[in-house]
């Protein structure tokens, strides 16, 4: 008899699948959560239950599930030219069109930005690895061979490969993996609600962080620091909006010390903050931009790294001497991913999804404040565009309310995320969500909080 017929799918999963970022013992005790289909904002489980996905997967399904336009674009591209690598100067049409469109999009929506080229990869993590390698390449070509340390922030999330995971500033991701790498430094988390001192104003908090950064640069030596990496809004850390004046003052310091700014826009890119890019929302003028997730709304794993003019000029200038630039991946610029990304951008534009995120953000915040703002353990409710957070405080140490609430929320028919750094529930629904769905999802979450 075929073994598959005697074992349930759940058993098969437990006996064969090593899940990412999951507890092995929880999986053995509770079994997996198996999903079978999704449409719009709603996902369906194998037991027939439907849930409103207030996470858009992992902050990524920006145009919602089941979009025929993206499916069709992918199918047609696969039929036409199922694969074309980009090594040695090769490329397919969708890849070229996507590079051109991304450059124009960033240039036209982020004032003062000057991006010159796009490099493609497969995931947010590898985009950040690419950023580190290009930082090394840039400083080496300029003869500044000691400028190799990277400063990230405590609470940051930049991925989980050895290099990007080292940039991630959440210790639980490092434990038992011999991380972070030695050339990564972490400076203070810019989250005023939790890390501001008693009586300290938001501006004074910003100034303290900037002073601490300057001290770090002085201590290490500016000639050893190659780049600073920042999410415009820190996502997985807890939806931390930059405190007043933060990026302005930060960029002044980086400029003075010839330190590159890498903007990790893996979450904030493609409308999430109510503008096309978080760099536009918060006045960043980065040297490298990492994009993934919303680039294809997760219909295809793809990342893009935008490279500034000043870096590109150095690469181009040294090209005769250096020969082949030896970095890239088999799937860099995959034509199917590129075609899907183009269709995704079409949908974003046709449905004005960035404006929609800007309009619906306040609706989400208002609903959260009305429905859970009075709870004695809710310390802060915040957000920008369609990324929001409920942060808990003042609860007994052992209870981790965000995790308890997440379980109750699933039972109540809404998917939310309990984050790993601070006791925070995050909300980042597809940008296509309706007002009625926001109200319904928050209502379910409020009921879950009451039940917890
Ligand atoms: N950077 C940020 C800001 C992210 O939120 C993530 C993923 O959540 C990553 C990088 C890593 O992306 P990936 O999981 O596609 O490697």
Structural features, described:
This protein folds into two domains: 33-63 and 352-451, Alpha-Beta Complex (Aspartate Aminotransferase, domain 1), CATH 3.90.1150; 72-350, Type I PLP-dependent aspartate aminotransferase-like (Major domain) (Aspartate Aminotransferase, domain 2, 3-Layer(aba) Sandwich), CATH 3.40.640.10. The protein contains 18 helices and 15 strands. The protein has helices at 3-6, 9-16, 24-30, 56-59, 68-80, 93-109, 124-141, 162-167, 192-195, 202-220, 246-256, 278-282, 309-317, 319-322, 335-350, 353-372, 401-412, 435-451, and strands at 35-39, 42-45, 50-53, 115-121, 149-153, 184-187, 225-230, 260-264, 288-291, 303-308, 378-384, 387-392, 414-415, 417-418, 424-427. The longest helix is centred in the last third of the chain and has 20 residues, at 353-372. The radius of gyration is 22 Å and the shape is globular. The termini are far apart. The mean pLDDT is 97. It binds pyridoxal-5'-phosphate. Pyridoxal-5'-phosphate binds next to α7. Its cofactor is pyridoxal 5'-phosphate. Pfam families: Aminotran_3 (PF00202).
């Amino acid at each position: 008899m075929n073994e598959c017929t005697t074992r349930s799918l759940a058993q098969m999963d437990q006996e064969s699948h090593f899940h990412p970022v999951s507890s092995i013992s929880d999986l053995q005790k509770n079994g997996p959560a198996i999903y079978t289909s999704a449409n719009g904002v709603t996902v369906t489980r194998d037991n027939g239950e439907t849930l409103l996905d207030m996470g858009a997967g992992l902050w990524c399904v920006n145009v919602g599930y089941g979009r025929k336009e993206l499916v069709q674009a992918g199918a047609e591209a696969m039929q036409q030219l199922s694969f074309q690598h980009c090594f040695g100067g090769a490329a397919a049409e969708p890849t070229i069109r996507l590079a051109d469109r991304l450059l124009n999009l960033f240039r036209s929506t982020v004032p003062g930005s000057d991006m010159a080229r796009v490099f493609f990869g497969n995931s947010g993590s590898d985009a950040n690895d690419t950023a580190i390698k290009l930082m090394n390449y840039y400083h080496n070509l300029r003869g500044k061979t000691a400028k190799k340390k990277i400063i990230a922030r405590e609470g940051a999330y930049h991925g989980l490969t050895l290099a990007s995971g080292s940039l991630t500033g959440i210790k639980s991701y490092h434990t038992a993996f011999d991380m972070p790498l030695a050339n990564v430094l972490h400076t203070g988390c810019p989250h005023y609600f939790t890390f501001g001192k008693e009586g300290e104003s938001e501006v004074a908090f910003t100034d303290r962080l900037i002073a601490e950064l300057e001290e770090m640069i002085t201590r290490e030596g500016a000639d050893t620091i190659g780049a600073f990496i920042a999410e415009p809004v820190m996502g997985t850390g807890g939806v931390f909006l930059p405190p007043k004046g933060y990026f302005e003052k930060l960029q002044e310091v980086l400029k003075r010390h010839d330190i590159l700014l890498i903007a990790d826009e893996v979450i904030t890119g493609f409308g999430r903050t109510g503008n096309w890019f978080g760099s536009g929302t918060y006045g960043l003028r980065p040297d490298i931009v990492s994009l993934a997730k919303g680039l294809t709304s997760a219909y295809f794993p793809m990342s893009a790294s935008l490279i500034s003019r000043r870096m590109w000029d150095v690469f181009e200038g040294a090209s005769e001497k250096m020969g082949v630039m030896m970095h890239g991946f088999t799937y860099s610029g995959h034509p199917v991913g590129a075609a899907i990304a183009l269709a995704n951008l079409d949908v974003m534009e046709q449905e004005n999804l960035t404006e929609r995120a800007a309009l619906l953000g306040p609706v989400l915040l208002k609903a959260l404040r009305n429905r859970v703002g009075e709870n004695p353990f809710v310390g802060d409710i915040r957000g920008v565009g369609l990324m929001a957070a409920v942060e808990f405080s003042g609860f007994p140490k052992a209870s981790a309310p965000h995790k308890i609430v997440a379980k109750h929320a699933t039972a109540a028919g809404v998917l939310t995320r309990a984050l790993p750094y601070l006791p925070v529930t995050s909300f980042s629904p597809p940008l296509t969500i309706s007002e009625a769905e926001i109200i319904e999802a928050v209502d379910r979450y409020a009921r879950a909080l009451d039940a917890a």
